[in-house]
Amino acid sequence: MPKLSELAVPSYRLHKQSGQAIVTLNKRDILLGEFGSRESREKYNRVIAEWLAAGRRLPIDPAEITIAEIVAAFRRHAVRCYRHADG
Question: Cys-Cys link to 40, which of 21, 49, 81, 87 (CB 3.0-4.6 A)?
Answer without folding.
Answer: 21
